[in-house]
Amino acid sequence: MNPLPSRRRWFWPAAGALLFGATAVAAGYATAPASRPRVPPVPVSAAGPVLVHGTIQARDSSGLRLTTAAGPRGLKVTAATAFERLEPATLDDIHPGDWLNVGAAPNKQTLFAITGLVVMSPDVVREEPR
Predict the structure, then answer these.
(1) What is the predicted pLDDT for the residue at 130?
(2) In which residue ranges of the chain is pLDDT below 50?
(3) How far is Cα 117 from Cα 87, in angstroms, rounded to an integer?
(4) Considering the entire predicted model, what is its pTM?
(5) What's the pLDDT at 1?
(6) Alpha-carbon span 50 to 83, nearest angstrom
(7) C-alpha–C-alpha distance, residues 111 and 104, integer Å
(8) DSSP H helical segments within the chain, as ranges?
(9) Phi and psi torsions of 122, nearest 5°
C-alpha cells in the first residue's frame, strides 16, 4: 500500500488551517493600535483617620515638621485647625456629655489596664463633615 495518497488527504486541510491562522495573526498585528491605550489609575478609597505621633522639630504659619518613628513628616495647618493642650484633671472635671478617649495596655488580669484618659468638652469636639 502506498502511503502517499493518505498524506494528500490531510495536506490541503492542514495547509488551509495554517494559511487561515497566519492570516488571522497578520490581521491582528495590522489592526492593533500603535501604542497601548492608557488605563486611568484606580482611585484610592479614602482611608480612615491617620494618627501621627512625633516630636515637633519646626513650625511656621503653614505647618509643622515632626520627627516620627517612621521618619520626618510635615503636617499642614490652616486657620480652621483646632489645637488642644492636655492638662491634668480630676474626676470633678468630668461632666455628662464630655468626650472621653481612653488609653489602655493589654493586661493578664483584665482585658486592658487603663493608662490614661483624655476628656474633651462637647464644644471642643466636632464631627467632620462626611
Answers:
(1) 45
(2) 129-130
(3) 11
(4) 0.37
(5) 53
(6) 16
(7) 9
(8) 4-31
(9) -60, -30
